[in-house]
Amino acid sequence: MRAVIVAMAVAIVLGASPATAAADPGASPLDLADPSVGGLDPALRTAVQNAATAAASEGVTMTITSGWRSPQFQQQLLDDAVVTYGSLAAARRYVQTPEMSKHVIGQAVDVGGTGADQWLDANGSRFGLCRIYANEIWHFELATDATGVCPPLLPDAAS
């Protein structure tokens, strides 16, 4: 139990969700006490909360697997990706630098829950939410234009 508490405390300091540290599939979009939710830009947070409510009415549970991240946590994710993918160039396809990450400024969210990413991909523009990268079905940002249309997908985070 002590190890779980320590992991959660470290996660909070680094900007990760304590739910993620405890191997939970994600935080409720309504859980403002979770830094990954509470640290989101208010407009994005409201859009995700509204989308999650609409999804729930259709039987789809949406969670936030990653929202706001500290620069230190973002750097750790990038460092881990370099090890996983073998180079900075390969890692950058999946993980932005802290200086470029929309997560660090609270303007990006990764969603979880069975079917939530597909639901949001099909319905997110109603809430201003758009999938940004072709290789990340879970990553969304407020990005619709004035007519409510999402921009074309970028191939990956390095684009």
UniProtKB/TrEMBL annotation:
Domain of life: Bacteria
Name of the protein described by the UniProt record: M15 family metallopeptidase
Signal peptide per UniProt: 1-21
Source organism of the structure: Mycobacterium yunnanensis
GO molecular function, one term: peptidase activity
Coiled-coil positions: none
Regions that span the bilayer: none
InterPro entries: DD-CPase-like (IPR052179), VanY-like_core_dom (IPR003709), Zn_M74/Hedgehog-like (IPR009045)
One GO BP annotation of this record: proteolysis
Keywords on record: Signal
All copies of domain D-alanyl-D-alanine carboxypeptidase-like core, residue ranges: 40-124
